[in-house]
Amino acid sequence: MLVFCLFLLRGVVLGQPISIAQPYDIIISEFMADPTPSRGLPEAEYIELYNRTMDKYFNLKDYRIMNGKDTTLLNSDTLKPNQYRIIYKKASGISFRKFGDTLQVLKMGSLTNSKDSFYLITNTNQKDVVIDAATYDLNLYQDAKKAVGGYSFERINVNTPCNPLGWMASNNPNGGTPGKINSDSSKITDTSPLEIDRFFFTNSDKALVIVFNKSLNRNGFSDKAHYQLLSTNYKIDSIAIDNSILYNSIQLNFSSPLKDSFRLIVKSTLKDCLNFTSLKKPDTLLIKKTEALVYKDLIVNEILTNPETGGSRFIEIYNRSNKVFNIFDLGVGDNIIASNKINITTKMLLFPNEYIVFTPNPYDIQKRYNATTYRTIILKQKLPA
User: Fold this and answer.
1) Which of 10, 87, 177, 183 gives the lowest tally of CB atoms within 10 Å of its CB?
2) What value, to the nearest 5°, has the Cα angle with vertex 22 and ends 17 and 24?
3) Whole-number Å distance between alpha carbons of 142 and 145
4) In 3D, which of 144, 155, 183 has the Cα closest to residue 361?
């Protein structure tokens, strides 16, 4: 009789209809990229998935994890509402079962220790759909001591999947919290506004790329009603995601190449990935053709070569001209020998009277100097010794 009752209870769970996840129904809630040295967990990489929904059941065999050219195929396993699942590669002597619900896989794409990106994907109506993604580097730990290894990246808030920077190193003494709520977790609803971080022209000056601080609503970003051109010389032909698995940058394709300046209004009707927050107010962008740089158009305005212990170096640049430049055309060097130059890796327009800070660790600069005001331009950039 006892066995019969257990069978019925199990049947209730298995009898739930299986849903196809919408973006951010399932999120990447934690991952271990550098498990060495172990702080108490098995010395192996893992990725933790979490079902954010209250009433949906998912069969993980319908999903896969992509990491560059590597594909991790998930096995048949039901992920219930508010449930975690630890994904790791089957190996002798490695088991996460005592930490929570697990799913072993025969092959798993390896995460590089210092910098990488990966995403959870499914196929709906013969079309691949990214459900969630994570991109990281060592600065995302927000703790230099933990960046040496043995600590996982934890999502700070499971209700803020739109924020690509919403991660930190685990505060658990074991180095991670696989299979359970994260060590410094919050479930406060995300009320931070959508903001434009930067923008630049590409594709022979026919396409404008706009990068936001958050992922965008995928069903609404391409509506032309969100964008108003204050010019009769151009029109928007199409709008697409700019090859970003984070869905935080878009490309506006114009009818003709940029020849003169105009203004573009991005309206506050544009929403974030959960369709919850938007721009505080319409944002007017001055779209202007870049010009040739001459001596002293840009100056080094401030430089920190010897930071406090644990701090980061930085170089601050000021545009003292009346021109617009794409910083991607620049480089930073410790002398005039070309081989010592480090190219700027970010595309962005720098306007007259604007400052920009280059630093290996933007998180440190923002916190240490309270540089968090709207559109403070602090960019991650390797600097010369």
Assistant:
1) 10
2) 120
3) 9
4) 144
* Six-digit token string for 168: 């930190």
For 295-317, the pLDDT digits (tens) are 999 999 999 999 998 889 999 99
Indicate the pTM of the whole model: 0.87
Render pLDDT for 363-379 as a digit per residue (tens, 0 to 9): 888 888 887 655 568 88
Query: To 10 degrees, the CA torsion angle through 331, 337, 340, 342?
Result: 10
| Two tokens, residue 238 | 């199409």
Q: Is 196 helix (H, G, I), strand (E, B) or coil?
A: strand
| Radius of gyration over every alpha carbon of the chain, rounded to an integer in angstroms | 23
Q: Which of 73, 168, 166, 169 is nearest to 121 (CA)?
A: 73
284/302 Cα distance (integer angstroms): 29
- Residue-by-residue DSSP string for 218-245: TTTTT-GGGEEES-SS--EEEEEE-S-T
Tell me the per-residue pLDDT of 111-167, one tens digit each, with 9 for 90 and over.
999 999 999 999 988 889 999 999 999 989 988 899 999 999 999 998 889 999 899
Query: Alpha-carbon distance 360 to 377, whole Å?
Result: 14
